[in-house]
Amino acid sequence: MVDAREFHKRTSHSPESIKERTYRPDPSNRPRPDKRYIDVERIRLDQIHPTQQPALAAIAQSHADVEPEGHHPEFTLTALATICYEANGIVQRVQHHGNEVLFRAASCTGKLYHIDLYLICGDLDGLDAGVYHFDPSTFSFDVLRRGDYRGVIADAVNGSGGGIESAPVSVVLTSTWWRNAWKYHNRAYRHAFWDGGTVIANLLASAHGQGHRAQVVAGFVDNQLTRLLGVRPEMEAPIAVVPIGQGMPSPSAPAVEPIDYDTAALSRESRTFSLIVDAWAQSRFEDPSNVRSWVEKADASATIGRVKDVGEGPVSLQPVDDELASKRPLFATIKRRGSKRSFEDDGPSKAQLSTVLDRALCGIPADWNGGGAAELTFNDPYLLVTDIEGMDDGRYRYDAASHTGEWFGTIDRATKAHLALDQSYGGEAHVNVYLLTGLGDVVETLGNRGYRAAQLEAGIALGRLYLASAAHRALGGTGLTFFDDLVTESLGPFATSQTPTCLYAFGKVAA
User: Fold this and answer.
1) β-bridge partners, 433
2) 96, 177, 229, 453: least CB-packed within 10 angstroms?
3) Residue 11: CB partners within 8 Å, gap ≥ 6?
4) d(CA 36, CA 138)
5) pLDDT surpasses 70 at 310
6) Distance CA 109, CA 91 (A)
7) The domain 4-252+266-298 belongs to what CATH superfamily?
8) For the chain, what are the domain ranges?
9) Under 8 Å between Cβ of 222 and 285
10) CB distance 88 to 134 below 8 Å
11) Separation of alpha carbons 349 and 389, rounded Å
């Protein structure tokens, strides 16, 4: 029976733990990067309408609603196919040493792509009501159930899921543990929320860019969803739900009969990791009343795990307005994104840095904040900055509300690289954005489910940082891992009660 704080401690990296690590992933047993159903009906998707709203505008939506009250854009099969493609589709195929390497729309640790999308929808233009699985490899929907099961999702959130009761479609994201644990072992549980978060960042941006209401739901009765999807939580489990659209009330929940379709083997041999299974199980909700009380407690708390008032004085970080900001469309930004790990000597302009931070680190529409908030709920952003014109090299705490950075110490490239698990591009990047949360406060207030939410928020912010930097012609970056306790020590004394949840390193990309 593992507490989230104990799990986090046991999966933290240190210089000693890295030296003592004995496992090496077997390349011949690498799991496939997709879930392939055998002998099920498939609906081929042959059309999308790429989202043309500027990426910087699409990702900066901090509330669920984007359209005036009463205006509901039509939700069609093409709209749904576009959202799935821009969130988790294959956007690039590259030949490497005789093998085809597939790149997805959103970043994933180790390019292992362990996040799947399931769609529970009513009757749409071009698609009958049902439960579907999105298969990126064939760009199709696998038909798992026919009929309108949206009431099952509504029951699972007990009326606290921010519009699920009237959403034409809800997207359930799952993680298949082994597909990531093959390389990362128990730390893959963290990655479920990092990588699920980057997919959600794209998902929200795509939905909002098309004018649809969308938000994140972290509170739900887990077993109701595993039964609906026909997944076994020791292998694959739901991590979040995203209801999209409005204006289509769901019917009462029908009976949910068990399903168990055959799927292609992931690899020659698969392992289960008891620490992951236990961590997920200890954060489950088994009763709808637990969901409602958790959501109400989270919303009432406003911010949890954050600190205030650090530093020796604010440095103004004024972003450019929408008129001057990059107009690169969301679709083109997703196609360009990638992980960039080679940087120029001179960094981005201060205005570019400010704009990336402003658009990426605003609030996320979620059930834990009532569907929208100006700032992040669980995570404080800290910056390690080198070679930005108009800013002293150093450590900063970023405050989104005031567009300021509070300087509180020097930094150099060697230290940046060391903190980032001695990865050289952590030092070469001009800005390392660390997100930290007070894990003790989060778990004491919101239990083990709070750990999921804090990690998921950090993952969504990570995905937004990818998109916000890629929206600029010369910028790019990559998500990295880190030495947990050393990061906390480096950001002390202000972050002594906090622990890092995510790291994004970015800057001006080398030509």
Assistant:
1) 383, 504
2) 96
3) 186, 187, 189, 190, 275
4) 9
5) no
6) 17
7) NADH Oxidase (3.40.109.10)
8) 4-252+266-298, 314-508
9) yes
10) yes
11) 6
Q: What is the pLDDT of residue 325?
A: 87
Structure tokens at 145: 């159930």
Q: Hey, what are 202's tokens?
A: 């794209």
- Tell me whether domains 4-252+266-298 and 314-508 share a fold: yes
Overall average pLDDT of the 460-473 stretch: 97
CB of 347 within 8 A of CB of 354? no
Amino acid identity at 290: N
Amino acid at 324: L
Q: How far is the C-alpha of 409 from the C-alpha of 394, rounded, in Å?
A: 5
3-class DSSP state of 416: helix
Q: Quick check: helix, strand or coil at residue 233?
A: coil
Per the structure block, which two tokens stand in for 211? 């004018």
Residue 208 near residue 58 (C-beta atoms within 8 A): yes
Estimate the crossing angle of helix 177-184 against helix 274-281, to 10 degrees: 130
DSSP state of 185: G
How far apart (Å, rounded) are the C-alpha atoms in residues 485 and 133? 39
Most confident of the ranges 16-25, 97-106, 345-354: 345-354
* Rounded-to-integer distance, Cα 84 and Cα 79, Å: 9
Structure tokens at 483: 């030495």
Tens digit of pLDDT for each residue in 425-439? 999 999 999 999 999
Angstrom distance (rounded) from CA 312 to CA 302: 26
pLDDT digits (tens, 9 = 90+) for 252-305: 999 999 999 999 999 999 999 999 999 999 999 999 999 999 999 998 888 899
Indicate whether 406 pLDDT > 70.
yes
341 contacts: CB under 8 Å, gap ≥ 6: 425, 428, 478
Nearest to 131 by CA among 146, 117, 115: 146
Fold annotation for 314-508: NADH Oxidase (3.40.109)
Q: Which residue has the tokens 């509300």?
A: 401
Among residues 413, 435, 502, 507, which one has the least CA distance to residue 195?
502
Distances (CA, A) of 31 to 7, 183, 213, 240, 321: 24, 10, 35, 23, 45
Distance of CA 248 to the CA centre of its chain: 27
- 125 forms beta bridges with 76
Please state the rounded mean pLDDT for residues 197-202.
98
- pLDDT over 60 (residue 228): yes
Q: Decide: residue 509, CB within 10 A, 0-12 exposed, 13-18 middle, 19+ buried.
A: buried
Residue 244 has pLDDT above 80, yes or no: yes
Residue 176 has pLDDT above 70, yes or no: yes
Using CA atoms, how far residue 17 sits from 5, 12, 186, 247, 483, in Å, is 18, 8, 13, 52, 10
Strand order in the sheet with 169-176: 42-44, 140-146, 130-135, 115-121, 169-176, 236-244
Could you tell me if 503 and 481 are in contact, meaning their C-beta atoms sit under 8 angstroms apart? yes
Q: In degrees, to the nearest 5, what angle opens at C-alpha 426 toward C-alphas 61 and 175?
A: 55
